[in-house]
Amino acid sequence: xxxxxxxxxxxxxxxxxxxxxxxxxxxxxxxxxxxxxxxxxxxxxxxxxxxxxxxxxxxxxxxxxxxxxxxxxxxxxxxxxxxxxxxxxxxxxxxxxxxxxxxxxxxx
Length: 108
Description:
Strand order of the largest sheet: 1-2
Strand content: 5-15%
CATH topology of the domain at 31-93: Recoverin, domain 1
Order of helices and strands: HHEHHEH
Distance between the termini: 56 Å
CATH architecture of the domain at 31-93: Orthogonal Bundle
């Protein structure tokens, strides 16, 4: 019986440890200052949305992806801070216009 309790305790500790490691990898890279590192995965998301891989995310490319929150046109406009009609990877990864949630609007 003591070995069973020990095995359960060790198993639970391992689950919490692995969960904590996964959480720290997805949340730990965020910074509240403008010069902080980009959020985890934003570069991969940008590359997936950039259909022609020219380093610029146009409104058409952005609108082609499914959107679950907010008004996608408004989100794109808020990321395109200089009004050029496209968003660079740097603009995309700042978190501006990304809606509410962890890391959203970090630099505003």
